[in-house]
Amino acid sequence: MAIETPFITADGIVEIYSEGKFQGIVLIDRLNPPHGTALPGGFMDIGETIEACLKREMSEEIGLDVEIIKLLGLYSDPDRDPRFHTVSAVYVCRAEKFPTAGDDAKSTKVVPLNALEGESFVFDHGKIIADYLMGIPNNPSHPQKEEKEMRS
Amino acid sequence: MAIETPFITADGIVEIYSEGKFQGIVLIDRLNPPHGTALPGGFMDIGETIEACLKREMSEEIGLDVEIIKLLGLYSDPDRDPRFHTVSAVYVCRAEKFPTAGDDAKSTKVVPLNALEGESFVFDHGKIIADYLMGIPNNPSHPQKEEKEMRS
Description:
The structure is a homodimer.
Chain A: E1 7-18, E2 21-30, E3 37-38, E4 41-43, H1 50-62, E5 67-75, E6 86-95, E7 105-111, H2 125-134, H3 146-151
Parallel strand pairs in A: 1-6
Antiparallel strand pairs in A: 1-2, 1-4, 2-3, 2-7, 5-6
């Protein structure tokens, strides 16, 4: 039996804290196509766990040693990546330093939650961030906004 | 760039209810190697979402139209499958009928939660079920046992 399944990536919503105060989440400007604003992340290697992949990608792409908080969800729509079918495992994580661009990131920035609506994202990263802001993975109909208000 | 990532499966912890009363979860006896007791599930096809994969596999393998309750977690240890590196997305779901074996299931059974410890599982399905019983995905150190006691 020849098995073929979609590719897997790990992508991070990285919350940046400075002296205990929440500053915003990390976005990158992609070096490789598709170009545009995205969450940091990348393809999982055979032989590593998905959590190790996430930590490796965050180190390579935004220069941060992140602490994983939780799995936000799995994003698997066949059309979410224009190149091929890719399943993204999205983790919320945190770091205490500011990011520096590397690997597939041309540049990085830390964006406060109330400024995210002005961004234009590649892939389905806008939907992922909307789910993150709602506080409920894959369920945009649940208006749990306290988290946003507390933080901004 | 030649991309190669692990295979992806969707596996189900299917809670069976009869006349509103919880009966247990579905286990299968595997037809194909590795042989033994397992959760139902199977490989994701390119072009389907992970949720569609789960529902298709539950239909093919245990004859049930399941309702997805939540994503329990991602299991991605490189050694969890003796054949090759496979990432399992495990969903808790429910159905109102009893299962019937098909596809990779030689037989099926519905096992009450307090009888699960007597089972001998293939892959890391014993760990997955322990996580499910704890109520906290991927965190066996959190002793949230109320769910188990309420149900048994």
